[in-house]
Amino acid sequence: MKNPPNKLRSRLFSAGLGSVLSALILVAGLSSATTPASANGSAGLTLTLTARHGHTATALNDGRFLVVGGENGSNILGTVETIDATGYVALAADLATPRTDHTATLLSDGRVLVAGGWGQSGALVSTEIFDPTQDTWSAGPALQVGRSGHTATLLWGDTVLIAGGNDAGTAETLNVINGTSTPAGDLVAARYGQGAVRLTDGSVLLAGGDEGASQQSAELFDPTSQTFSPVDSTMGAPRVSPDLRVLPDGKVLVIGGDGNGTFEVFNPDSQVRVPGFNAAGPALNDSNTVDAVLNAQTRAAIIFDGSTVTGASGEVADLIDRDDYATAEAGGKVLIAGGI
Fold first, then answer.
1. Neighbours of 17 (CB within 10 A)
2. How crowded is residue 210: how many other Cβ atoms within 10 Å of its Cβ?
3. What does the DSSP 8-state code read for residue 97?
4. Is there a smaller number of Cβ atoms within 10 Å at the N or the C end of the chain?
5. What is the DSSP secondary structure assignment for residue 141, as one 8-state letter?
6. Is 67 helix (H, G, I), strand (E, B) or coil?
7. Of 328, 326, 244, the residue nearest 59 (C-alpha)
8. Are 52 and 77 in contact (CB under 8 A)?
9. How many Å apart are CA 142 and CA 263, to the nearest integer?
10. 3-state helix, strand, coil in the chain (%, to 5)
C-alpha cells in the first residue's frame, strides 16, 4: 500500500500553517472582496473558512456548496461546512471518519457520496453518504480496496466509477442503491491524482495524474465492456489533479493541475486536442481577464462576462496556482476553496 497519493505529501503535512483559509466566489463577472464571514452568519463574498487542503467542494442541488474533510497541518479533518450563494458559511454534521484526498460525488437524488481517502490508519475502504435535507451522514458500501487520490465519476443512476488512486492500477464500480462494489478492468496506466469526467456518450475520460512522475497520457473507460483503452494523443503538458469540464459541444476543457496555470481542450471525436489550439495555453495571470483566457479558445463552462476578477484573496492566478485546492460550479458561480 502506498503512502497518501499527493507527491507533495511530505511538504503538505509540514505546511499546515500555510494552508489557505479563504474561498473566492466568482459571480458572472463580479468578485466582491468584502468582510469575512462573521459569527452571526453575515458574510461578503470573500470568506474565511476552516484552513484545509486535500478536501472536496461539491455543488448541492439547493445552490449551496459542501466542503468536506481534508487536512490542516498534521490533523486529518472530519469537519464539514456549507456555503450558500450569498457567502453565508455554516457548519454541517461531521464525518464519521476524518479523511483527506477522498472523493465527493453528487448522486441523482441530491445526496453526496464521499468515498475512500486517507485516514489516521491509512487508505480507507469506507464510504459515507450525506443527506443535505437532513444534515446527516450514513454509511455507504465499502470499496474493494482502500483508496486515496482516486477519482469517482457518476455513470448512470447511482452507479459510480472509482478509479486509480494509491491502489493505482485498479478500478471498481460502486452501486449505492444495492450497496455493492464490483471490480472493473485495470487502468491502462497506473495513476493517482488524475482528472476524470463522464463524456456525452457515457464513457469516462481519465487524464494526467502521477505515478512516480506527472503524466501527460489519458485513457477512456467504456461502461458497457468495463474496460479501459488508451487515448491516441497526449496532453500538451503533464498535469496532476487537473479540472475537467465537458463543454456544450462535447469537447472537454482540461484546466490547470497542481502548479499549472494553463489549459487545453480534448476532442473525444477525433481523440486529439483541438486543431491549432496552443496546449501550453495563455497562463491565468494578472495581465489576462478571465474572459480573455477562458473564452478566447473555447466556450468555457464558467462565464464571467469579460470582467477582470480581483479581490483581497488574490488574483485568479494565485488561486489556480495553489496545490490541493477544490472547485465546484453552480448557477453561474464557481467556488475555488482552500489549498496551500
1. 9
2. 25
3. S
4. N
5. P
6. strand
7. 328
8. yes
9. 35
10. 5, 35, 60
- Cell readout for 277 is 489550439
Provide the greatest CA pair distance for the chain.
Answer: 54
Go through 66-78 and write b for each residue having 16 or more CB atoms within 10 A of its CB, e for each that does not.
bbbbbbbeeebbb
Beta bridge partners of residue 147, listed in sequence order: 124
Residues 6+ apart with CB under 8 A from 334: 25, 26, 302, 327, 328
Instruction: State the amino acid at position 128 in one-letter form.
Output: E
Task: Let me know: does 139 contact 127? Beta carbons within 8 Å.
Answer: yes
63 pLDDT higher than 80 = yes
Q: Are 17 and 73 in contact (CB under 8 A)?
A: yes
Q: How many CB atoms lie within 10 A of CB 139?
A: 12
Alpha helices in the chain (DSSP H): 9-14, 290-295, 316-320
CA angle 11, 13, 19 (to 5 degrees): 90
- Identify residue 236 by its one-letter amino acid code: G
pLDDT in tens, 230-256: 998 888 888 898 888 887 778 888 877
pLDDT value of residue 92? 95
- 205 backbone dihedrals φ, ψ, rounded to 5°: -95, 130
For residue 182, the SS3 value is strand
